[in-house]
C-alpha cells in the first residue's frame, strides 16, 4: 500500500469499515529501522504508516493476559497481551487454531527476533483474525506460513498482488468480497 500510496481513508471509509492491527503487528511496526539491511531509507515508510494509522484511527487489538517473563525471570522485552480494559478474551476457536499442530510447528520453528517476537508470531495474530475479518497482506501467496495456512482453511486473506492483477481498486476488490 505504501508503494502505491493507498489512502486508507478513501479505500476504507470509516462509515463502512473499522480498521485494526494486532498488538504483534504494532510491535513489528515499532521495530522498523530508519535504514533497512540493504541501506534503503525507511523513514518515509514509517511516516506513511504513522499517518495512515492516525488518519483512520486504526485501533490496536490484543488478547487479554498478564505480563510475560523470560526464562531467567526478567520481564519480557515486549508485551503482547492487553490488560484490563485493553484486551479481549481469546475465543475457543482462536485457542483451538493456535493449539493445532500445524500452527504450533509454524510458531516454534523460528526463534525470537531481536524485537522480541518469534518469526511467525505477528502473521499468526493476523491469520487467526482472518476467520472473522479481512486481512490484507503483501506477503507472497506461496509463502508457507500462518497466513497461507489460514487462507487454505477459509480465512479471508487478501493478497495485494491479487488486487493488482485484478485491475480493481483496493476498495472495489474488498467490496467484491463482501457481496
Description:
The protein has 179 residues and is mainly alpha-helical. It has one domain. The chain is built from nine helices and four strands. Helix 7 (146-152) links the parallel strand 3 (134-137) and strand 4 (156-159). Helix 2 packs antiparallel against helix 6 and helix 6 (121-129) packs parallel to helix 7.
Essential attributes:
single chain; 179 residues; mainly alpha; two-stranded parallel ribbon; 41% helix; 8% strand; globular
Write the layout of secondary structure elements.
Blueprint: H1 8-11, E1 20-22, H2 23-30, H3 43-55, E2 59-61, H4 92-99, H5 101-108, H6 121-129, E3 134-137, H7 146-152, E4 156-159, H8 160-166, H9 170-178
Parallel strand pairs: 1-2, 3-4
Helix pairs in contact: 2-6, 6-7
How are the strands ordered across the major sheet? 1-2
Q: Roughly what is the average pLDDT, rounded to an integer?
A: 92
Shape: globular
End-to-end separation: 23 Å
Number of domains: 1
Q: What's the helical proportion of residues? A: 40-55%
Question: Can you describe this structure in just a few lines?
Answer:
With 179 residues, this protein is mainly α. It has helices at 8-11, 23-30, 43-55, 92-99, 101-108, 121-129, 146-152, 160-166, 170-178; strands at residues 20-22, 59-61, 134-137, 156-159. The model has no long low-confidence stretch (mean pLDDT 92).
Amino acid at each position: 500500500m505504501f508503494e502505491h500510496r493507498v489512502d486508507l481513508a478513501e479505500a476504507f471509509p470509516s462509515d463502512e469499515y473499522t480498521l485494526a492491527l494486532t498488538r504483534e503487528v504494532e510491535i513489528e511496526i515499532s521495530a522498523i529501522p530508519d535504514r533497512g539491511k540493504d541501506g534503503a531509507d525507511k523513514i518515509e515508510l514509517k511516516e506513511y504508516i504513522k499517518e495512515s494509522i492516525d488518519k483512520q484511527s486504526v485501533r490496536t487489538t490484543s488478547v487479554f493476559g498478564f505480563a510475560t517473563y523470560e526464562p531467567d525471570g526478567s520481564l519480557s522485552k515486549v508485551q503482547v497481551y492487553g490488560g484490563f480494559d485493553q484486551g479481549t478474551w481469546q475465543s475457543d476457536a482462536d485457542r483451538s487454531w493456535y493449539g493445532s499442530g500445524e500452527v504450533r510447528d509454524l510458531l516454534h520453528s523460528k526463534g525470537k527476533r531481536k524485537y522480541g517476537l518469534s518469526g511467525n508470531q505477528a502473521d499468526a495474530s493476523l491469520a487467526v483474525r482472518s476467520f472473522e475479518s479481512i486481512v490484507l497482506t503483501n506477503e507472497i501467496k506461496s509463502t508457507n506460513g500462518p497466513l497461507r495456512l489460514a487462507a487454505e482453511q477459509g480465512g479471508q486473506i487478501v493478497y495485494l498482488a491479487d488486487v493488482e492483477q485484478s485491475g480493481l481498486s483496493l476498495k472495489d476488490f474488498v467490496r467484491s468480497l463482501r457481496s
